Amino acid sequence: MSLRRLDLTDFRVFPSARFAPERDGTTVITGANGTGKTSVLEALAYLGTRRSFRGAPTDALVRGGADSAIVRADIEGADSPVTVEAEIRLAGRSRTKVNYKITTARKDLAAAAPCTVFSPDDLSLVSGAPRGRRDLLDDALGALDARGARAADDVERVLRQRGALLRQAAGKSTPDVSASLDVWDGRLATLAEVLVSSRQALAVALAELVGEAYARLAGAAGQNLIALSYARSWNGDLRDALSASRRDDLRRAVNTVGPHRDDLILRIDGREARTHASQGEQRCLALALRLGVHRLVCARTPLRPVLLLDDVFSELDPTRSRALAEELPSGQSIVTTAVPLPAGMEVAQVVQVAELVGADP
Predict the structure, then answer these.
(1) What's 229's domain CATH number?
(2) If we measure between CA atoms, which residue out of 54, 146, 115 comes closest to residue 293?
(3) Residue 149 located in a structural domain
(4) Each residue of 110-130: pLDDT tens digit?
(5) 3-state secondary structure (DSSP) of residue 117
(6) Residue 147 in contact with residue 196, Cβ under 8 Å?
(7) 7 within a domain of the structure (yes/no)
(8) Residue 220 has what pLDDT?
(9) Per-residue confidence (pLDDT) for residue 222, from 0 to 100
(10) Is 263 left (phi over 0), alpha (psi -120 to 50) or beta?
(11) How far is 267 from 275, CA to CA, in rounded Å?
(12) pLDDT tens digits for 136-190?
């Protein structure tokens, strides 16, 4: 997989822009802070996930004064060229097209625009809330497990519908509300069984790859046992748990139980990394998680995700920077950086972000 061209219209700071990186090797985007270097990577990653890897809301992605933004990429796929286009709207529903057909399926987007993102914010994968770790798993399912990816999409839809019903009920458990909740609870329990099984299998498959990557990134300090385990947020049958939580769900008007509350527990030598690891250990583990997912996707599918590195070297000491550069798989990579690249890291192209602005999409 390689990006041939990325066109932006009214995305972030760009009225219009065009970016054409080297198809094999490393392209470095340079420029002053606030000029849009990270936004180029953010736009490309959005096509494969329908969200900002920076955690930004939709309205932050649309340039001030515009009603919508367009992100369009021409990608050289495994078998044929692919065009992916997203229209991000301030009002109404945003939409994404693959080869001019609208799609919302996680697996279709992951296959059309596969990317592996390395960002300074990745530290929150380890130290932050469970949602980031769930997103890591579900994004990987998009490339690795079609059944699990469909279940992840369907669970999101059921949770939205169930949540809307809870809000409409205004805390009252009428016969109609109870009957509708019974239906949604049954659907959620069935879908959750598939999703949780897929997430658990993925955690098992990733454990060895993440451990190996961590050891190489951490060097002499990396002779640690890395463990990944999936933790459900309920005990027993989910239908029973949903029934037991119904009164609380109605009172709070939120879904309090389900796979959207689960977590991926990360341990280093038996210590939970979120609370008992140093920041250096957490950062190495976050990088190792990204590398592990990338290697698993490459091993099990024809996909070769584009590597996107957003100023990660500024957060690493020289030893770990060199180790990360040596660990990066071959292929296309796009890098933004505010510091010199590690010694020995070859660069195929350097692009000033100012050169992209105003280019005709």
Answers:
(1) 1.20.1050.90
(2) 115
(3) yes
(4) 999 999 999 999 999 999 999
(5) strand
(6) no
(7) no
(8) 63
(9) 62
(10) beta
(11) 10
(12) 999 999 999 999 999 999 999 999 999 999 999 999 999 999 999 999 999 999 9
Contacts of 356 (CB under 8 A, 6+ apart): 14, 17, 18, 19, 36, 40
Give the other-Cβ count within 10 Å of 14's Cβ: 26
**CA–CA distance, 231 with 30 (Å, rounded to integer):** 41
Q: Tell if the pTM clears 0.90, that is, is over it.
A: yes
Residue of 238, 232, 224, 223 lying closest to 203 (CA atoms): 232
Residues 310-330: tens digit of each pLDDT: 999 988 888 889 999 999 988
Specify the 3-state DSSP secondary structure of 360: coil
* Tokens standing for residue 104: 């919302």
Q: Within the chain, where are the H helices? A: 37-49, 58-61, 106-112, 123-127, 130-144, 146-169, 175-218, 238-252, 273-276, 279-300, 318-327
Three-state SS letters, 82-115: EEEEEEEECCCCCEEEECCEECCCHHHHHHHCCE
User: What is the amino acid identity at position 242?
Assistant: L
For residue 143 the two structure tokens come to 């490339």
Residue 142 inside a domain? The answer is yes
The DSSP secondary structure of 315-334, one letter per residue, reads GS-HHHHHHHHHHSPSSEEE
Q: Compute the Cα dihedral for 305, 310, 315, 321 and give only its sign.
A: positive
Average pLDDT of every residue of the chain: 94
Asked whether residue 259 is domain-assigned, the answer is: yes
Q: What is the rounded CA–CA span in Å between residue 117 and residue 289?
A: 11
Q: Which residues contact 327 (CB under 8 A, 6 or more apart)?
A: 213, 216, 217, 291
Count of domains for the chain: 1
Q: List the domain range (segments joined by +) for residue 227.
A: 123-300
Distance CA 112, CA 165 (A): 34
